[in-house]
Every structure is written in structure tokens, then in C-alpha cells.
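**User:** Everyone, produce a chain:

**Assistant:**
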Amino acid sequence: MLVEADEYLLPLSRYIHLNPIRSRRFKNADVHTRAGHLKKYPWSSFSGYCYLRKRKPGFDYSRLLNTYFGQDNAQGRRKYREYVLNAIDAEIENPFEDVLHQSILGTLEFVKWVKEKLPLKESREVPASRSLQRDLSTDQVVNAVSQFYGVEAVDILDRKTRAKRVRQMAMELCYRFCNLGQRQIGQIFNVDYSTVSANRSRLNSRLESDRRLKKQFDQIRGTLINV
């Protein structure tokens, strides 16, 4: 995933470093217990940002600390530690809700810059590059799905529709081809971002095992690439 550093990198790092305490195990734990777990969690880089003795080879700790907290020194490490730990009981937004085109977290200007730098042809290194070259409206995507399956667009947008699979298809393709994050897609489909994420996850799981569905998905995707 490509991340625009200025506005998004710091909150993204905090969100990721808080992941270990989002399990049921810590649902009713106090702040002290959760903070202690974060500091000791062995599969996270968080402790290395806070303490020199906890650093592991292969990690660039200094870049984030220098950028946001002045310097990679005792004061900078303390500030970052406080930044993360003070959010343990806070309501913070999930940065992944705003990821665009499956792989970019940043402003629309940043997305435009990325598009200009990517190759026009899809490659192994950048499998979504051709999708990134398209900037379609949700109407275009929903209408393409509607025409392929013979389902009215209004039914695809209806949360009570019986065409659940078709609706999932439209959500996934909107995520790939429109400059929208999951939060914005949820507003269009009248659900919250977590429902969009769950529907996309179910569809992608089916695409791995259902050849017929995968063929249908690729056909619609090909149509949208050529719009």
C-alpha cells in the first residue's frame, strides 16, 4: 500500500500499533493492562519506537520519529509512546476506511500523482495498475454490473435486495475503480464501512474458489477498464 506521509502515516502507524489490544481478551481490561501488553507484544515494532534496547534489525524507526517528533532521541520516542498510549481509550478513526483503489492512502492529489507514475499496462509488480488508470463514477460501475446481471441499479443499491452477490460485486468494483474509500462507498450503499468491508471480504473469498463467479467478475472488470 502507498501512503502519503504528511497527513496519513502517523495515524496509520498508531492504528496498526493498537491492533494487538483489539481482541476480545482485552475488551474489559484496564488501560494499564492494555498498555503493558502493547509494550511487550513481540510481533510489533511499537516497542522499538519507544525504547532503543527493543529495536530489531531491518526497521527504519528514525524516519517517522524525525518527521513527526523532531528527532529520534529520548524525547521523540517518549512523545510517540504517549501519542499511541493516550489513544487506548479514545475513539480513533480507522485509516483503512479511506484507502482508495485498493492500495493508496492519501489525498486525491496524491492519488493523481501515483496514477501518473504508474505504467499503463498491468504488471506483476503492480497488478492493479490498469484499474488505477480509471477514475469512474459509482453510477458507471453500478450500471455496468446492472447490465451484466440484468438487475435494476436501484435494486443493487437497496440494502434489502435479494441480489446479495450482485451487490457485493458492485461494492468491490466501486472500491477498485472509483476514487472512494469504504466509508464513502458505504454511504452510497446505505451501510457502514464495516459492512462494506465484510461484503468485499466474502466476495473475494468466493472469487478464489468459484471459477464461474471469477469469470463474471473479470468480464465486468474488463468492461470497466475499457470505459
The chain has two domains: 2-92, 122-225. Confidence is low (pLDDT under 50) at residues 123-127. The longest helix spans residues 193-209.
